[in-house]
Amino acid sequence: MRASPAGSVARPFSVRSRPLAAVLVAATALAVCGPAALAQSDDGAGRFRAQFWAEVEPVSDVGDPWPVPPEERARRLLDEAAWVYSGMIWGFSFSYTPYDKVRGIAERFDLASLGSLKAGDPRLELGRTRTEAGMTRAFVTYRPSPDEERRVSTYAEDPWQSSQGIGHADYLLGWKAHRASFEDGLREAVRSYLRMVVPNKPRRVLGRVVFERAPVLSIADGVYASQVRVRIEVLEVMPYEVY
Fold this sequence. Notes:
By secondary structure, this protein is of the alpha+beta class. It has one domain (35-236). Helix content is 26%, strand content 30%. The strands form two sheets. Strands 2, 3, 7, 8, 9 and 10 form a six-stranded antiparallel β-sheet that branches. Strands 1, 4, 5 and 6 form a four-stranded antiparallel β-sheet that branches. Residues 1-40 have low confidence and may be disordered.
Protein backbone atom coordinates (compact mmCIF):
# COMPACT_ATOMS: atom_id res chain seq x y z
CA MET A 1 0.00 0.00 0.00
CA ARG A 2 1.25 3.44 -0.87
CA ALA A 3 -0.08 6.80 0.26
CA SER A 4 -0.22 9.43 -2.46
CA PRO A 5 1.18 12.93 -1.90
CA ALA A 6 -2.40 14.16 -1.61
CA GLY A 7 -3.02 11.82 1.31
CA SER A 8 -5.11 9.27 -0.55
CA VAL A 9 -4.53 5.63 0.35
CA ALA A 10 -4.41 2.97 -2.33
CA ARG A 11 -5.22 -0.69 -1.99
CA PRO A 12 -2.68 -2.95 -0.24
CA PHE A 13 -0.11 -4.59 -2.48
CA SER A 14 0.07 -8.31 -3.13
CA VAL A 15 3.14 -10.20 -1.92
CA ARG A 16 2.76 -12.51 -4.91
CA SER A 17 3.47 -9.58 -7.23
CA ARG A 18 6.93 -9.03 -5.70
CA PRO A 19 10.15 -10.56 -7.04
CA LEU A 20 11.28 -13.63 -5.12
CA ALA A 21 14.33 -11.80 -3.76
CA ALA A 22 12.15 -9.06 -2.29
CA VAL A 23 9.90 -11.58 -0.57
CA LEU A 24 12.95 -13.33 0.87
CA VAL A 25 14.21 -10.02 2.27
CA ALA A 26 10.87 -9.42 3.97
CA ALA A 27 10.73 -12.96 5.31
CA THR A 28 14.23 -12.58 6.75
CA ALA A 29 13.21 -9.38 8.50
CA LEU A 30 10.23 -11.14 10.04
CA ALA A 31 12.42 -13.95 11.32
CA VAL A 32 14.79 -11.44 12.93
CA CYS A 33 12.29 -8.92 14.28
CA GLY A 34 9.16 -10.95 14.83
CA PRO A 35 5.80 -9.33 15.62
CA ALA A 36 5.96 -6.29 17.87
CA ALA A 37 2.87 -4.70 19.38
CA LEU A 38 2.14 -1.28 20.78
CA ALA A 39 0.92 -1.52 24.36
CA GLN A 40 -2.30 -0.11 25.76
CA SER A 41 -2.25 3.61 25.18
CA ASP A 42 -3.97 4.88 28.32
CA ASP A 43 -2.40 3.77 31.60
CA GLY A 44 -5.20 5.13 33.79
CA ALA A 45 -2.96 7.82 35.29
CA GLY A 46 -4.16 10.70 33.15
CA ARG A 47 -1.58 10.10 30.46
CA PHE A 48 -1.00 8.20 27.24
CA ARG A 49 1.58 5.45 27.42
CA ALA A 50 2.39 3.01 24.64
CA GLN A 51 5.37 1.05 23.42
CA PHE A 52 6.81 1.90 20.02
CA TRP A 53 9.62 0.27 18.06
CA ALA A 54 12.11 1.11 15.36
CA GLU A 55 14.26 -1.24 13.29
CA VAL A 56 18.03 -1.00 13.48
CA GLU A 57 18.45 -2.14 9.85
CA PRO A 58 15.22 -1.38 7.99
CA VAL A 59 14.82 -1.16 4.25
CA SER A 60 16.16 2.35 3.58
CA ASP A 61 15.92 4.99 0.89
CA VAL A 62 19.05 6.32 -0.75
CA GLY A 63 20.69 8.76 1.65
CA ASP A 64 19.04 7.37 4.78
CA PRO A 65 21.44 6.25 7.53
CA TRP A 66 21.98 2.50 7.69
CA PRO A 67 22.27 0.93 10.13
CA VAL A 68 20.19 3.53 11.91
CA PRO A 69 22.14 5.21 14.74
CA PRO A 70 20.58 5.29 18.24
CA GLU A 71 19.77 9.00 18.15
CA GLU A 72 17.87 8.63 14.87
CA ARG A 73 15.95 5.63 16.21
CA ALA A 74 14.96 7.70 19.27
CA ARG A 75 13.81 10.51 16.99
CA ARG A 76 11.67 8.10 14.95
CA LEU A 77 10.09 6.68 18.10
CA LEU A 78 9.12 10.16 19.32
CA ASP A 79 7.89 11.23 15.88
CA GLU A 80 5.66 8.15 15.55
CA ALA A 81 4.29 8.55 19.07
CA ALA A 82 3.55 12.24 18.45
CA TRP A 83 1.59 11.35 15.31
CA VAL A 84 -0.38 8.54 16.99
CA TYR A 85 -1.21 10.62 20.08
CA SER A 86 -2.26 13.52 17.85
CA GLY A 87 -4.63 11.06 16.17
CA MET A 88 -6.07 10.20 19.59
CA ILE A 89 -6.51 13.84 20.68
CA TRP A 90 -7.58 15.63 17.49
CA GLY A 91 -7.91 12.88 14.93
CA PHE A 92 -8.44 13.39 11.22
CA SER A 93 -11.04 14.55 8.77
CA PHE A 94 -11.69 12.04 6.02
CA SER A 95 -13.26 11.83 2.61
CA TYR A 96 -14.12 8.31 1.45
CA THR A 97 -15.24 7.24 -2.02
CA PRO A 98 -16.17 3.54 -2.25
CA TYR A 99 -15.03 1.40 -5.15
CA ASP A 100 -17.75 0.95 -7.76
CA LYS A 101 -16.98 -1.45 -10.59
CA VAL A 102 -20.15 -0.68 -12.57
CA ARG A 103 -19.57 3.07 -12.54
CA GLY A 104 -15.83 2.69 -13.06
CA ILE A 105 -14.97 4.53 -9.85
CA ALA A 106 -11.83 3.67 -7.89
CA GLU A 107 -11.79 3.59 -4.11
CA ARG A 108 -10.30 6.76 -2.60
CA PHE A 109 -9.58 7.67 1.01
CA ASP A 110 -8.18 11.09 1.92
CA LEU A 111 -7.03 12.04 5.41
CA ALA A 112 -6.21 15.45 6.85
CA SER A 113 -4.83 15.91 10.35
CA LEU A 114 -6.91 18.15 12.62
CA GLY A 115 -4.07 18.88 15.05
CA SER A 116 -0.58 17.72 15.83
CA LEU A 117 1.91 17.36 18.63
CA LYS A 118 5.57 18.04 18.03
CA ALA A 119 8.27 15.49 18.77
CA GLY A 120 10.00 18.12 20.93
CA ASP A 121 6.97 18.74 23.16
CA PRO A 122 8.25 18.56 26.78
CA ARG A 123 5.20 16.51 27.79
CA LEU A 124 6.22 13.80 25.31
CA GLU A 125 8.74 11.60 27.12
CA LEU A 126 10.80 8.74 25.74
CA GLY A 127 11.36 5.97 28.27
CA ARG A 128 14.36 3.68 28.55
CA THR A 129 15.20 2.08 25.21
CA ARG A 130 15.97 -1.61 24.80
CA THR A 131 17.52 -3.04 21.64
CA GLU A 132 17.42 -6.73 20.73
CA ALA A 133 16.72 -8.85 17.67
CA GLY A 134 17.41 -5.87 15.41
CA MET A 135 14.77 -3.67 17.02
CA THR A 136 14.77 -0.80 19.51
CA ARG A 137 11.71 -0.58 21.76
CA ALA A 138 10.66 2.07 24.25
CA PHE A 139 7.56 3.32 26.00
CA VAL A 140 6.60 6.87 25.11
CA THR A 141 4.32 8.79 27.49
CA TYR A 142 2.34 11.97 27.00
CA ARG A 143 0.37 13.87 29.61
CA PRO A 144 -2.50 15.71 27.90
CA SER A 145 -3.68 19.11 29.05
CA PRO A 146 -7.12 19.46 30.72
CA ASP A 147 -8.56 20.77 27.43
CA GLU A 148 -7.11 17.80 25.56
CA GLU A 149 -8.51 15.39 28.15
CA ARG A 150 -11.97 16.91 27.75
CA ARG A 151 -11.72 16.65 23.99
CA VAL A 152 -10.78 12.97 24.18
CA SER A 153 -13.64 12.26 26.60
CA THR A 154 -16.21 13.49 24.05
CA TYR A 155 -15.27 10.68 21.67
CA ALA A 156 -16.96 8.20 24.03
CA GLU A 157 -20.30 9.98 23.46
CA ASP A 158 -22.79 10.24 20.60
CA PRO A 159 -22.50 10.72 17.69
CA TRP A 160 -19.13 8.96 17.79
CA GLN A 161 -19.22 5.23 17.03
CA SER A 162 -16.65 2.45 17.32
CA SER A 163 -15.03 0.51 14.51
CA GLN A 164 -11.83 -1.32 13.78
CA GLY A 165 -9.72 -2.43 10.84
CA ILE A 166 -6.43 -4.00 9.85
CA GLY A 167 -4.13 -1.92 7.68
CA HIS A 168 -1.23 -3.05 5.53
CA ALA A 169 1.85 -1.46 3.97
CA ASP A 170 4.69 -2.84 1.89
CA TYR A 171 7.68 -3.87 4.02
CA LEU A 172 9.97 -2.65 1.25
CA LEU A 173 8.83 0.92 1.91
CA GLY A 174 10.93 0.83 5.07
CA TRP A 175 10.25 2.60 8.36
CA LYS A 176 7.91 5.13 6.74
CA ALA A 177 5.49 2.27 6.10
CA HIS A 178 4.58 2.22 9.81
CA ARG A 179 2.43 5.29 9.30
CA ALA A 180 1.19 4.07 5.93
CA SER A 181 -0.15 0.90 7.59
CA PHE A 182 -1.86 3.00 10.29
CA GLU A 183 -3.53 5.11 7.60
CA ASP A 184 -4.66 2.00 5.76
CA GLY A 185 -6.09 0.69 9.04
CA LEU A 186 -8.08 3.91 9.39
CA ARG A 187 -9.42 3.38 5.86
CA GLU A 188 -10.44 -0.19 6.64
CA ALA A 189 -12.14 0.87 9.89
CA VAL A 190 -14.12 3.61 8.12
CA ARG A 191 -15.04 1.28 5.28
CA SER A 192 -16.19 -1.44 7.68
CA TYR A 193 -18.35 0.96 9.67
CA LEU A 194 -19.99 2.51 6.59
CA ARG A 195 -20.90 -0.91 5.22
CA MET A 196 -22.94 -1.50 8.37
CA VAL A 197 -24.74 1.86 8.55
CA VAL A 198 -25.15 3.02 4.92
CA PRO A 199 -27.39 0.55 3.04
CA ASN A 200 -26.86 2.01 -0.44
CA LYS A 201 -23.37 2.61 -1.76
CA PRO A 202 -22.71 6.34 -1.43
CA ARG A 203 -20.88 8.56 -3.89
CA ARG A 204 -18.76 10.03 -1.11
CA VAL A 205 -18.75 10.23 2.69
CA LEU A 206 -17.23 12.99 4.81
CA GLY A 207 -16.45 12.63 8.50
CA ARG A 208 -13.93 12.53 11.30
CA VAL A 209 -12.02 9.63 12.81
CA VAL A 210 -9.81 9.31 15.90
CA PHE A 211 -7.70 6.51 17.30
CA GLU A 212 -9.39 4.91 20.29
CA ARG A 213 -5.99 3.56 21.35
CA ALA A 214 -2.54 3.21 19.86
CA PRO A 215 -2.48 0.80 16.90
CA VAL A 216 -0.94 -2.65 17.28
CA LEU A 217 1.82 -3.04 14.70
CA SER A 218 3.50 -6.24 13.49
CA ILE A 219 5.39 -7.62 10.50
CA ALA A 220 3.98 -10.65 8.69
CA ASP A 221 4.15 -12.12 5.19
CA GLY A 222 6.21 -9.26 3.80
CA VAL A 223 4.00 -6.44 5.08
CA TYR A 224 3.60 -4.18 8.05
CA ALA A 225 0.18 -4.94 9.53
CA SER A 226 -1.58 -2.73 12.07
CA GLN A 227 -4.69 -3.46 14.10
CA VAL A 228 -6.56 -0.17 14.49
CA ARG A 229 -9.45 0.70 16.79
CA VAL A 230 -11.20 4.00 16.17
CA ARG A 231 -14.14 6.26 16.90
CA ILE A 232 -15.95 7.69 13.87
CA GLU A 233 -18.28 10.63 13.31
CA VAL A 234 -20.04 10.73 9.92
CA LEU A 235 -20.74 14.32 8.88
CA GLU A 236 -22.19 13.93 5.39
CA VAL A 237 -23.25 11.11 3.09
CA MET A 238 -23.48 12.08 -0.58
CA PRO A 239 -25.66 9.67 -2.57
CA TYR A 240 -25.62 8.98 -6.28
CA GLU A 241 -28.42 11.16 -7.64
CA VAL A 242 -28.33 9.70 -11.15
CA TYR A 243 -27.29 6.13 -11.85
